[in-house]
Amino acid sequence: MPRGATLAFPAKAMKITVLTGLEKADPKAYDAVADQVAAALNEKGHTASVLGVYDDLRKLISDLTRQKPDLVFNLLESFGKSNSGDIGVAGVLDLLGLHYTGGGPGELYLRQDKGLAKKVLAFENLLYPHFAVFSQNSDFETAGNLRLPLFVKPLTADASIGIDGDSLVRDTTSLMKRVITIHEKIKDSALVEEYIEGRELYVGVLGNREPVPLPPVEVDFTGFPEGEPKILGTKAKWKKNSAEYKGTKSVLADLPDELRAKLQKTAVDAYRAVRVRDYGRVDLRLTEAGEIYVLEVNASCYLEKDSEFSMAAQAAGIEFPDLVERIAELAVERYG
């Protein structure tokens, strides 16, 4: 979308519930992005309020039934201690006959199982790192023909949970130790994939029938601690006082037009393949040889004002309130 392009929205003001997960059974223990989204919707003339839920299903149903929203802006990523609880909550929204942003239960399941998502990418002939899955409830396997070094991460966890400098392994002993750590500490299966050296880029995508790619954003590792593998682990993403966090920043990618277009096409193809709805972000690695690998497809990606997705939208001329309203309207259009 060209800079300064205008977005046409239906004029109808909606009653919108911004649904978010709570970190604990405290009605205010939710991420600030929920308030930002609600404020943006209110600024655009809608009536939006935040509903935070932890693990009380009856209360969730009661609150939604009482509020009767025209749309649920679904930011929920877990339900209580269940990291896959968002799948069940989407099913509840369907059963209640509510319209909501983002994926349904099937799309969320596909997104969460990274191994399954990679198999879908393979069917679409999209390049991705070769991988193996080490399940919690099966005997320890070998990584087959995978080439070292390998990157080991939880199969279903998000937000860089279980990822740090030790996630990059260079021998089979380290591989075994890391897989067992994920099994025991994260309580998840381990995804083992070949490590792709190169530039890390994010391409946001907005839309359904005709997805629109946003300008690519690159992770600048210039200030990263020397000797550390250039990966965005837990420290680099969330621990503001760490050297990893201070040593990285997201910037608009400086790319030739042809390469930018190729990256954006790859992102849209991956977005379609994994059946993302309304908005998402595709994480890519660009090698020195010009190969583009799809690392991960993030449906309903993090929407905070200063996130990479919001940064890319602003570079395309879409300010945050317009971006949030556009996502809401895309959901409305999808439901017809």
Order of helices and strands: EHEHEHHHEEEHEEEEHHEHEEHH
CATH topology of the largest domain: D-amino Acid Aminotransferase, Chain A, domain 1
The CATH class label of the largest domain is Alpha Beta
CATH superfamily of the largest domain: ATP-grasp fold, B domain
Q: Which architecture of the largest domain per CATH?
A: 2-Layer Sandwich
Tell me the number of structural domains. Answer: 3
Provide the gyration radius in Å.
20 Å
Helicity level, as a percent range?
25-40%
Strand content: 15-25%
Structural class: alpha+beta
In the predicted model, the low-confidence regions spanning at least 5 consecutive residues are: 1-10
Mean pLDDT, to the nearest integer, reads 90
Largest sheet properties: 6 strands, antiparallel
Distance between the termini: 24 Å
Shape: globular
Note the total helix count. Answer: 11
Annotation, overall tally of beta strands: 13
Task: Using brief descriptors, characterize the structure shown.
3 domains; Rossmann fold; disordered N terminus; alpha+beta; six-stranded antiparallel sheet; four-stranded antiparallel sheet; D-amino Acid Aminotransferase, Chain A, domain 1; 11 helices
What report would you give on this structure?
By secondary structure, this protein is an alpha+beta fold. The chain folds into 3 domains: 88 residues, Rossmann fold, CATH 3.40.50; 65 residues, 2-Layer Sandwich (Dna Ligase, domain 1), CATH 3.30.1490; 139 residues, 2-Layer Sandwich (D-amino Acid Aminotransferase, Chain A, domain 1). Helix content is 35%, strand content 20%. It contains 11 helices and 13 strands. The strands form 3 sheets. Strands 8, 9, 10, 11, 12 and 13 form a 6-stranded antiparallel β-sheet that branches. A 4-stranded antiparallel β-sheet has the order 4-7-5-6, covered by helices on one side. The chain has a 3-stranded parallel β-sheet with strand order 2-1-3, with helices on both faces. Helix 1 packs across helix 11 and helix 3 packs antiparallel against helix 4. The chain is globular. The N terminus is likely disordered.
